[in-house]
Structures are given as structure tokens and as C-alpha cells.
Write a structure and sequence with these properties.
The complex is a heterodimer. Chain A contains 12 helices and 9 strands. By secondary structure, chain A is of the alpha/beta class. Chain A is globular. Chain B is an alpha/beta fold. Chain B has 12 helices and 13 strands. Chain B starts with a strand and ends in a 19-residue tail after the last helix. Helices cover 40% and strands 18% of the residues of chain B. The C terminus of chain B is likely disordered. The chains are: A alpha/beta, B alpha/beta. Chains A and B meet through helix 3, helix 6, helix 7, strand 4 and helix 8 of A and strand 12 and helix 8 of B. Chain A: Keywords: Acyltransferase, Transferase.
Chain lengths: 322, 333
């Protein structure tokens, strides 16, 4: 019966060590609200069963004793704070079903290409949770995001810490070169902000820059279809003038927003299915073919076709969105 | 082969230390140090010549010394270092023009190494995560030190066109960091309460002063042409820097910081608009080209360089700092 006693003592010691540190660095600058961090703590707590471990984590964070890569990706913060927050949405709100997870390789580079929708990019966040929590190699996803994200205060550094980076071919190639799993949403704003009436109809896949990147780095392309995100904010109108004024790509009107204010910001609790398709190999082309528009369009159309077909099938299989 | 090396900016830290490092090399016959002010430490066998770069007297020094290698290290980052922005520009831009003109007309100079700065890339949210040498600045610097450096590089390119036989290396330095170096950034981290831009947590990257000196020394002797990023591996968010230094931060809205900046400019801090942008968006370099060219890599990572700074000076000012790290062995990461 000495073990519980030991456990009871340790947190107190840790707390004593921590106490003088706390006032020096405001906690809310850390990238999650204090409430959020505590939330993460209780989760971690529940998992490891050690409050001392959580305190140690906090102390390390406050001392700056952690590693961040040159893209700004903070694996520890992502795993312990950001993912647990997103996991709540994943498990309880959207109740996501995964299919074809074995199509995502355990190691090495791959480019995950997915449809994009939902006004706010919940689909990107959920994809990240899916791969981290449910893939057998707990793969971290490095997603390419729009430049608006990196111009926005708070969001810019949170996104970097969570593993997002600018949707530029330089960044994508560098990450793939390091053997990372890179996520891309080639539809961009056109997909994210499309009206509700066009749900599950893929928009143009950009200019196919992602295909060039995949061919040049010889990375397999994994088509991914996400069903459910298209209904979380049914966009019925777009206040274009207001959007221009606020320098946003669109200003959505949904049944709840802006009519009910912040409450209208709550996404609808739709049921999601995420399916990963079989990888489309790019090694049948020489890396030099990356600049050949013919190859880029051919591969691009193939991937887009797979995603569209999968979406059509999944929507029918899912039935009722809720 | 007997060599004669001419070092500008020898009275300043980096120049002085490079001269010192070169002295140990028996292959180098003479080292001539040029600066407008007398050095505050003994230079050993380095011969000191007091000359202003911008008034043309440096031409005579280059000619008379018969230097074969010129290390141009006198780029000044802050107006207060030389007494005003006008003097700074005179030194940085006109001084460089004069020196390059002297190199162009010299029959002995074979090798030129120019210290520039990564500030030429500017700092923008729309740039890729890592800057490579061939990347055009999306948001080109418009004032101050960074603009001086852009102009300096332009003159160097002009010289390279006119004298293709010269071997020229331009080194774009990340922020120097370490136990003794003095830069606007080290003074910034030395503040009791460090103002940061609210809502931003930029990625910072450093190069340890020892590594910086070593890069210049190796570059002086190597025959590598082109532009090279000089930076330590890795990066740290500003928030992490402040936590490691035990400094409390004071988030200030961007507008407020601009005002604070103009106030601080009168004091001992220099806050240029470029510095403010750096505090918003950060800047990280890809230095793999340098590592390949020299077949060498920095001894310190960015974090280790910053820790070296903190270990020496981080606790000197604030009594409160360093408490968190007390009784803890330094952790090598």
C-alpha cells in the first residue's frame, strides 16, 4: 500500500516546483485557451492515470523545454492539446466512420487529396484526428492551407503549430522529401465556400499543382472522400460586398448564421464517413513529366474522378445525414 | 601559396573574431584589418588600418596591401552603432560601392566574401516556410538595414558581372546569437518585459556566433561562388525563446508596437518596420546549400545557440528569470 502514497506525494512536489513559474508566463499565449489546456490535461490524465505527468507536461511547456520543427510544427502541443480538443468533435459531434485506412502507408511520403467543403475547414481538422488516432502508425498529417490562415493573427501560429503550412509547391515538396504525409484540398475556397445546392459536386481541382508536386517527388496520391462536412453549414447565400469589405473569400449566410449570432456558428451534427482510396501511383511518370500539362491533367482527372465516384457512393450508403 | 587577407569591419565583433581565427592559419601571410574606429581589443598579428570605407581611402589600402582575399564584414545593422541613419547608409551602401570599385580595379584580388543578411528576404505570411537562396522576396524590404543589404547585394552582382574571374560568395546571415554578440535581437531579448505582437508567434532562427565566424573563415579559404544562407538547423517560436529565457512577454497590438518602436528608437533599441514584420511572421532559412558547399554543418542548433545566449546573459538583468530552470541540469536537445 505504499504505491498510492507515493503517487499522492509527487503531485504536491511538482506543484511546488511549478508555483513560482506560473505568474511569469501568461498561459493563454500558449496556443489553446487555459480552459482548453485543462481539458487536454484531464484527457491525458485519464489516459496515463497520472496527474503528476500532466503537471510535468505543463512545467515543460512553461520552461520552453520542447522541440518545434522548422515549419513551426509542435508535435507535443498538437498531440496533447489540439488533437484532444478536435477529438471531441470527431467522436461525439460528427461520429465519424473511417474506411480504407490501410490505403494510407505506414511510413514514407504520400499526398492525400481530398474534397473540401463546409464553409469552415472542419474537414481538415477531422482528417488530422482520424489519421493520428486511428491509423495503425498514428500518422501525422501535414496539411497545406490557404494564405488567409497565415495572415490571420492567432490562427497563423496555431495552424503552424498544428502542422499546417502554406499551400506552396516549395513547402509541399520539402515535406514530401522528408517522408511526411501531406494533405491537400485542391478545390480550395471554391470547394469550402460552395453553396449548399452544389454539395458533393466537386469543383475544379485548381491547376493541378498538387499533381506536379506528386510526380516530381514520386509520391503516391491517395484519393480521399469526406461525406458529411458538406452539410455542417448549409450556405444558402453569400454576402459578397461584406466579404470584400472584410477581405474574406466569402461571407456565408446559413439558416443559423448570422441570424442567431454566435449560436449559428455551431456546425450541424451531421454523421460523417471518410474513405481513403487505393493510392494512385505517380512512378509510371518520370519526375521530368511534372511540367508536362498533359500528364498533370491526366493524373489530375483520374484522381478527381475517383473522389467524385466515391462521394456519390458514400452519400447513398450513408442515407440520413444525421 | 602566401595569402593576404583584408577584413573590413575589423573593430566590430564579427570582423575582429574572423581576423583572430585567420591568424591561426600559417597559410595566411598577412591580415589587414580595416575599420573607421580603432579596435577595442588587441588584434594580434592583424595589421590595423584606420580608414573610412565610403571616402575612397580604402581603395589605396586594397592596392597597397596587394590583398588577394577581401572579407567585407562591415554591414552595420543599427543606426546607433555608427551615429545615425545617414552615417549608417554611408557606411553600408557607399562604403560597399567604394570597396567593390577597389576590388574591380585590383589586379591581386581573387576572392571576395560579403556578409549580407537574411533580412533581404523580408518577412511575409505568403512566403514558403523556408527561404532558399533563389527565392525572390515577396515583400521586399523598403527601409533600413535590410534595404541597405539589398543594395549591397545588387552592387556585388554588378561586380560579378564585370569581373567574372573573381570568386565571390555572399552570405545571408540569420540572426547571430551567442554569449557575447550584440545585435538588436539580443538587446530585445534582454528587456525586462519583452513586447511581442499580439496574436503572433513568429518562428525565430539563429546562428551561433562561433559558427558564424567559422563559416566566414571557411568561406574565405574555399572557392565557392554564389549566395548562401547561413543559419543553424531548427527554429523556435518566439514564445518558446522567451520561456527558455524566463522572460515575461507583453503582448501589444501591432499598432501599439509601432508606436512603442518609434519611442524605443530614441533609446537603445532599434525597431525598424522590418523588425516588426519579423516579430509577426518570422523567418527561417534553408542552409543546406552552404552545408553542401563547405561540407560542414553548424555545431549549434538554433535552440542551442539561444541557450548559449541565455546561459551567459539571460539571467544577468532580471532577478526573476532563470528561476524555472534552477536546480536542473541543462538539457541538451
Amino acid at each position: 500500500m505504499t504505491m498510492p502514497g507515493d503517487d499522492a506525494v509527487r503531485p504536491v512536489e511538482e506543484e511546488r516546483g511549478l508555483a513560482p513559474v506560473l505568474p511569469l508566463v501568461p498561459r493563454d499565449r500558449r496556443g489553446g485557451s487555459p480552459a482548453g489546456s485543462e481539458d487536454a490535461g484531464t484527457r491525458r490524465d485519464a489516459r496515463s492515470g497520472s496527474f503528476a505527468g500532466f503537471l510535468e507536461f505543463c512545467e515543460r511547456r512553461l520552461d520552453g523545454d520542447y522541440q518545434v520543427d522548422d515549419f513551426g510544427y509542435d508535435d507535443e502541443l498538437t498531440g496533447n492539446v489540439l488533437i484532444p480538443l478536435m477529438r471531441l468533435w470527431y467522436e461525439y459531434w460528427f461520429r465519424i466512420e473511417l474506411r480504407g485506412l490501410s490505403n494510407v502507408p505506414d511510413t514514407g511520403r504520400a499526398l492525400l487529396v481530398s474534397n473540401h467543403s463546409g464553409v469552415l475547414p472542419f474537414d481538415a481538422l477531422m482528417l488530422q484526428v482520424a489519421l493520428r488516432d486511428h491509423h495503425r502508425a498514428a500518422r501525422r498529417l501535414r496539411t497545406l492551407a490557404a494564405d488567409l490562415v497565415f495572415e490571420t493573427p492567432v490562427l497563423s501560429h496555431l495552424a503552424r503549430k498544428a502542422g499546417y503550412t502554406l499551400a506552396a509547391s516549395e513547402d509541399a515538396e520539402r515535406l514530401l522529401g522528408r517522408g511526411e504525409l501531406v494533405g491537400v484540398f485542391p478545390e480550395g475556397y471554391k470547394g469550402l465556400g460552395k453553396p449548399f445546392s452544389e454539395r458533393y459536386r466537386l469543383q475544379r481541382f485548381g491547376r493541378g499543382g498538387y499533381v506536379s508536386t506528386a510526380v516530381r517527388t514520386r509520391s503516391p496520391i491517395i484519393p480521399c472522400a469526406i461525406v458529411g462536412a458538406e452539410e455542417i453549414y448549409p450556405k444558402i447565400a453569400d454576402l459578397k460586398a461584406l466579404a470584400r469589405l472584410l477581405k474574406l473569400p466569402y461571407f456565408p449566410v446559413t439558416p443559423g448564421f448570422p441570424l442567431f449570432g454566435p449560436v449559428g456558428l455551431l456546425p450541424l451534427p451531421t454523421r460523417w464517413i471518410i474513405e481513403f482510396g487505393a493510392p494512385v501511383g505517380t512512378d509510371r511518370h518520370e519526375p521530368e513529366a511534372a511540367d508536362d500539362p498533359g500528364v498533370v491533367f491526366e493524373v489530375g482527372d483520374e484522381v478527381r474522378e475517383i473522389v467524385q465516384r466515391t462521394l456519390d457512393r458514400l452519400v447513398v450508403e450513408r442515407g440520413d445525414p444525421f | 601559396m602566401a595569402r593576404v587577407v583584408l577584413v573590413t569591419g575589423v573593430s566590430r565583433q564579427v570582423g575582429g573574431r574572423v581576423a583572430e581565427a585567420l591568424q591561426a592559419d600559417p597559410g595566411i601571410d598577412r591580415i589587414i584589418g580595416v575599420d573607421s574606429a580603432a579596435p577595442d581589443r588587441p588584434l594580434g598579428r592583424t595589421e590595423f588600418v584606420k580608414a573610412e570605407l565610403h571616402d575612397g581611402s580604402v581603395g589605396a589600402v586594397v592596392r597597397d596591401s596587394g590583398a588577394d582575399t577581401v572579407l567585407h564584414l562591415s554591414l552595420v545593422a543599427t543606426p546607433s552603432a555608427v551615429g545615425g541613419r545617414a552615417k549608417m547608409k554611408e557606411n553600408n551602401v557607399l562604403g560597399t560601392m567604394q570597396l567593390l570599385a577597389a576590388c574591380q580595379s585590383s589586379s591581386t584580388v581573387r576572392r571576395l566574401v560579403v556578409r549580407s543578411t537574411a533580412a533581404v528576404y523580408g518577412s511575409s505570411s505568403r512566403d514558403p516556410a523556408l527561404y532558399t537562396e533563389d527565392l525572390e522576396a515577396r515583400d521586399a524590404p523598403r527601409s533600413g538595414y535590410a534595404k541597405d543589404a539589398v543594395e549591397l547585394e545588387r552592387y556585388v552582382r554588378g561586380l560579378a558581372r564585370r569581373r567574372p574571374d573573381l570568386s565571390i560568395a555572399v552570405l545571408r546571415f540569420a540572426n547571430l546569437m551567442g554569449p557575447s554578440v550584440e545585435t538588436p535581437l539580443t538587446r530585445y531579448f534582454g528587456l525586462r518585459l519583452v513586447p511581442t505582437v499580439m496574436g503572433y508567434d513568429p518562428r525565430m532562427q539563429f546562428i551561433h556566433e562561433d559558427d558564424g565566424v567559422e563559416v566566414i573563415r571557411r568561406m574565405a579559404l574555399a572557392e565557392r561562388d554564389g549566395v548562401f544562407n547561413v543559419a543553424a538547423p531548427g527554429a523556435m517560436p518566439l514564445s518558446q525563446c522567451l520561456r527558455r529565457a524566463g522572460r515575461p512577454e507583453m503582448p501589444v497590438p501591432e499598432r501599439g508596437l509601432k508606436m512603442l518602436g518609434s519611442l524605443a528608437r530614441r533609446g537603445r533599441l532599434d525597431y525598424s518596420p522590418e523588425q516588426l514584420r519579423l516579430l509577426c511572421y518570422g523567418r527561417v532559412l534553408d542552409s543546406s546549400k552552404l552545408e553542401r558547399a563547405l561540407d560542414w554543418s553548424p555545431a549549434y542548433t538554433s535552440q542551442e545557440a539561444f541557450d548559449a545566449y541565455v546561459a551567459e546573459r539571460g539571467t544577468a538583468h532580471g532577478a526573476r528569470s532563470g528561476r524555472a530552470r534552477r536546480n536542473r541540469p541543462p538539457r541538451r536537445v
